Structure formats: C-alpha cells, structure tokens
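User: Structure tokens for both sequences below?

Assistant:
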Amino acid sequence: MEMQNIDTQIKELLLTNTSLDFPFVKRTLEGLPNKSEALKKNLQQKLEQHLLGFAEEVSKLQGTDRYQQCCQQAKAYLKNWMTYIEEVPLSQIKKLCKRTHLSFLDIGEDFITPTTLYAYAQKYVKGQDAYLKKLSLCLYTHYKRLRTSDLSLPKANLLAYGPTGVGKTYSVQVLADVLGSEFGVINCNSVVQEGIVGASLTDVFAEIYQRTGQNLAAVEQSVILFDEFDKLFYSGTYNDRIINELLNLIDDNGKATFSTSYYNSKVSHTISTKKILFLFTGVFDQLNKARINGFVSPETKTGKKEGTFYDKATREDFLKVIKKREILGRINDFVALKPITPAILKEILLGDSSPLRSYEHFFKLHNTTLKVEEKAIQKLASYAADKQLGVRGLNSLLWEILQQDMQQVQIPTETTESRKLCIDLPYLKKRINH
C-alpha cells in the first residue's frame, strides 16, 4: 500500500512541477514501477524541493513578463500531459495552481469548457446531473463573455426548481468560485416579509461592493442568485414595487442603484446589470397544485410529491405561477432538481467533500481516529432521507450524534494514548432521536 501511495504522490508531484522538461517526466513515469522504494523516496524529496523553489520564484514574478512565460510553459506542459499521459481535471489544475502560486484563471483558460466545469461540479454535488449540465453551460458562457469582453456571446438566465436542501445554491457557489466570479444571493423571502421596511433586491450589490473593496466592476460582473424566487409571487406577498424592481434588474439593458454608508452619510451608486448572470431557484410547489402539461399532478390524488409531471413543467405552467410574461421572457431555461435519495446521501457521506471529513479532522487533532462503519453510513443516509434533512442537514445530524464525544476530547501530549471512535449501529441507536 505504501509503495502505491508513493507512486501516486510522485505522479502528482511530476504533474505539479510544470517547469520540468516533459520528455524527462514521461521517462520517469514509465520507469517508476521498476524503481526501489529508496530511489522513489529520494525522487519524491527532490521533486518537493524543486516545487518549493519554483513556487517561491513565481510568487516574486507576479505582474512581470517572466510570470506570463511561466503560465504559457505550464499550459503547454499540461497539454502534453493530457496528450501523452491522461486527462487532468479542473480540480487537479486548481490544486496545481495553489501549490505553484500560478493564477488558476491564467492557466485554466485553455482547459475550462462546459464539460470540464460539469465534471468539476460533480465532485461536490451528487444526484443532480441535469441541473449541473445546464448550470455549467450558463456559468461557462458568463465566464467567456467576461474573459473575451464579447457581450455578443449568448447569455442564459436559468431557473432551477425543486426540493430544499438538494444543492441548488451550493452548486452555483462551487462553479462561481472556480471561475473567480463574485457571487451574491438575494433571499426573496426576506424581501417580501412584513416588517422589513425598505428591503430591496439591490441590497446584494452593496454587500458585494463592500466585500470586494468597493470594486464596482466586480459588482457589474457578478453572479446573482434569487433564492426562494417563487415567494415573490405568492398571493399574500405579491408586491408591485418589488416586481418592477426585478424587471429593471434583469432587463437586457438593466440598471441597479444601491446605497452604501460613508461615515455618517449615504452614497448612491448606479451600475449596469448587462454583464450580470441572473439565476433563480425555488421550490415552486404551486406547480404541484396545478395541472401540469394537461394532467393532474399525482400530489392532488395521493398527497405525495411524486414529481412525474412536476419535473416536466413548461414555460406556460410557470406563467400560471409567475403571471408576467416579461419576467419569463428574460429566463432562458428551466430545470427540475431531484429529491435526495438515501443512495445519493450515502454517496455524499463517502465522498471527498463529505461533511464527515471535518469531524475526522477534528478528532485527528485530538489523537483520535474516527471510523464510521458502512452499515452506519447506510443508516445515516436512510434517516436523513426519511426526515427530509437534505444535504445541508447532514452536518447538523453529525453534530447531534458526535457532540458528546467532541466535548470529551483533550489536548494530546507525548504521553496521551491514541484512541479510536467507531460509529456503528448500536452507537447510532443511542444517539439518534426517533
């Protein structure tokens, strides 16, 4: 196992050392299986030292012609790797850039496509492939419009609908982050709540403006998500002022005005929304109470959201809820998200981005190895699905289960014995409230 691990580590170091001569790298990889463990460890140390030296050099070259040469060299190196060895996913390129101090967008521009973005998002969000495909294309066209300064390229505002806690917002956050786009969320439920005097859809722009060090250009190129978008159209919360404000924002030549505080006074800013990508998410359970595509939703007969027709809602079905063609005319595409199943939750718990990883790290800091048996994983997934906790609820569930043991940890010393914490079915039975 150790030999396999060191082979993997050397391969990763060879990939990351983009300043190396590629023919040498190819020969090294081909001869790696025949090397002794001692030679492999020696090679690993040399590659680590070379990488540290290269990263230190790059950190001093920012903004120079030499830095651009390093970027071009890295792109050529990666293309050779993909031609002669194997594909390199965006997640690996991002990791490479972090270790070498090269900008991901400077390197990744030759490798970012709708397909590679989709593959990247799949590492973080499970069970929502249809949504991730459409979202990846929307974010890609947004990225390309900004990167090339060509606003004649197509722009697609997407509406995603489905249950809560299935990754609608998180998916956007993941893709916006990898593309270096500022991301803001408008909570439509908060905007329409009574008692919030003067709440505006444009408040999010003030947040981004402050977060980016008062960078108006960053605000004008951001990705904005209208969360709980359907709440704007409930009969008890419908507000003409907010709807008109919405139309002005998402218009092809839209404008937005927001205020920020400067000492004791208010400063007003007006921006163009032409470059902003707008996304819309919500449950839209009103669709389940209506006739979808000429059929009665299964919910009206069984009381369950089976989603057979709900998933196939058309633009005309949404018109029954949103009621304004002007709004629908500015939304290019629609996609339904699936309910989270036990199988999806199990895959999430076992994956690299599992919420379990943070708890494993916490216990490791306190000289404790956390192990969760497979049957316990299955039980957690089934319980979370049955209680409709969603993906976000997994972390709360793990906190509830593990907090007693977390409270009992101690700072390890030289004499502290390592211990193991095993989560099995009897353990869960004591911790989960049924």
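Moving on to the next sequence.
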Amino acid sequence: MSNFDPLNVLPEGAAGELPPPQKFAKAPPGLSAGGPIGEGLSLDTIMRIPVTVKIVLGSASMPVAALLKLGRGALIPLDRKIGEPVDVIVNGRVVARGEVVVMDEDPSRLGISLTEVVGPSVAENLR
C-alpha cells in the first residue's frame, strides 16, 4: 500500500499559493478601467443580477461506507435541533439567520422568517 498524500501532490512550497492576478488589455463593455462602475451601467441593471440564496438546515459528517449504505427511508441526523436558527447564505456568505415556518398561503411549502441580519464582519468570521 502506497503512502499517497493528496495534499502533497504539488511541488514543494507550492501548496496554498495563488497564481498572480491576470491583467486585461481593456475593461469589459460598460465599465471604466479607473472606476468600479462606468457610464454604461445603471443601478437598475445591477439590481437585476441574479444571486444564489441557500437556506442551510444543518449538516452531517459520515464515512463513505455509511454514505454508500443509505437508501430510501434512511435518516441522517443533522447538527442542528428543532427551533435553532438556520443560516441564510447568499453567494456563499452568511447574510442572515431565521426560523423555518410553514407558509400560510400554501401549507405544503416552507419559508424562513428572518430573525437576524448578519453584518459583514460577522459574515466573514462564519465562512
């Protein structure tokens, strides 16, 4: 059996290093090279950019062998209890926490009632 270490496949000293940032010949259309927003963009355009929102109910860890044995009806215990707040994640960052609720207009659907909006410094620490 070999002693393969997946974290040691890069040349010595290369682990954790990032490539240098790329420089582009010209700014993308609508953006000026000197500023964050050029004349071609309006706030309305930015407000229509889609973002991914995820609600994390909890997580679990298990060995691959246990994962492969899962089948219909299997229960996976999560690391959160009923009543604990869930995380609201936007594009990979925690932005709020809330409680899971049943929607009044459609009881077959769940929703989130926000209880806390997380500031940027707190969100950075939760990543």
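User: Anything stand out in the second?

Assistant: Residues 50-71+78-126 form a domain with the Surface presentation of antigens (SPOA) fold (CATH 2.30.330.10).
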